[in-house]
């Protein structure tokens, strides 16, 4: 009987789940464990990793120069998240509630950027905004400016690049949340005398709060690690935590310290996801 049950239930389940489980173990669990172990390692005088247990890497994270970048990262991430919410909510509401044929077209405009690598698109913006780029060239030919504007290598341009890259990640969860709105509730609110803004703040906003929170997590967390945006558009003047990690693994040649920074970023991610789960958010909208 046990053999029959094994053939009918256990064996098919093992065949279906086994390869996926093995894949996750090899490509997710093992690398994470390796990074965790490395974060407690040391380096010798030749910058070689030695498996000598130490907490020094985590102590270095409290260095004043690092704290400055942590604060700057949080400012950039918060600004990016707020701007994405302000821009994405009305845009997504129009897409989700419209019944015209243009709905699919508008939705495709959000998806299309995913077809091109983010790095290439950011380099495109660098060319466009550069001192000899198209924007400055057109403005000078129109005699609106007398000399090229300095649009690159500052925090504002970095935030712009972050918003450009992460805007779709705010739209997608909002689209799901707004699409689930019960239209009868909006009609009931109108029948009870509530005006447009009151309906929005007391009915629409609470019912789509999960999509807002989900979008905030999907924008805020990657923003802390998008070092290539800061490198290309910020020119090293608006570093995020991802830049610290990149430098430790490359020019700094201090892999244990880079691993410690990576672990901290993972912990922050897990905390935010747990908070989202505690508020009753749908984990599927995060891809978890």
UniProtKB/TrEMBL annotation:
Membrane topology per record: Multi-pass membrane protein
PROSITE patterns reported in the protein's UniProt record: ABC_TM1
Cellular compartments per GO CC: plasma membrane
One BP annotation, GO: transmembrane transport
Pfam families per record: BPD_transp_1 (PF00528)
Domain of life: Bacteria
Record bears the keyword Cytoplasm: no
Subcellular location: Cell membrane
InterPro entries per record: MetI-like (IPR000515), MetI-like_sf (IPR035906)
Domain ABC transmembrane type-1: 70-276
Transmembrane residue ranges: 21-47, 67-93, 105-124, 159-178, 199-229, 255-276
Subcellular location, principal: membrane
Keyword tags: Cell membrane, Membrane, Transmembrane, Transmembrane helix, Transport
Family designation: Belongs to the binding-protein-dependent transport system permease family. CysTW subfamily.
Protein name: ABC transporter permease
Lineage summary: Bacteria, Bacillati, Bacillota, Clostridia, Lachnospirales
């Amino acid at each position: 009987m046990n053999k029959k049950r094994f053939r009918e239930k256990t064996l098919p389940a093992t065949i279906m789940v086994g390869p996926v489980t093995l894949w996750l173990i090899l490509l997710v669990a093992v690398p994470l464990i390796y990074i965790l172990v490395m974060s407690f390692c040391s380096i010798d005088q030749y910058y070689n990793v030695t498996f000598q247990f130490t907490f020094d890497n985590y102590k270095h994270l409290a260095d004043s120069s690092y704290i400055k970048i942590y604060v700057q990262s949080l400012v950039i991430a918060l600004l990016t998240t707020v701007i994405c919410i302000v821009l994405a909510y009305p845009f997504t509401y129009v897409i989700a509630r419209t019944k015209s044929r243009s709905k699919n077209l508008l939705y495709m405009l959000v998806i299309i950027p995913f077809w091109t690598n983010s790095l290439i698109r950011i380099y495109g913006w660098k060319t466009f905004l550069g001192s000899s780029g198209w924007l400055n060239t057109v403005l000078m030919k129109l005699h609106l400016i007398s000399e090229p504007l300095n649009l690159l290598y500052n925090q504002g341009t970095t935030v712009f690049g972050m918003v450009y890259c992460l805007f779709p990640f705010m739209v997608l969860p909002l689209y799901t949340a707004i699409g689930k709105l019960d239209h009868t509730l909006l009609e009931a609110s109108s029948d009870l005398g509530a005006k447009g803004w009151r309906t929005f703040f007391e009915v629409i906003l609470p019912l789509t709060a999960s999509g807002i929170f989900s979008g905030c997590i999907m924008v805020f967390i990657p923003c802390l690690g998008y070092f290539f945006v800061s490198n290309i558009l910020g020119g090293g003047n608006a570093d995020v935590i991802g830049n610290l990690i990149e430098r430790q693994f490359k020019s700094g040649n201090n892999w244990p310290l880079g691993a410690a920074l990576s672990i901290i970023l993972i912990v922050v991610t897990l905390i935010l996801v747990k908070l989202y789960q505690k508020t009753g958010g749908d984990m599927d909208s995060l891809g978890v």
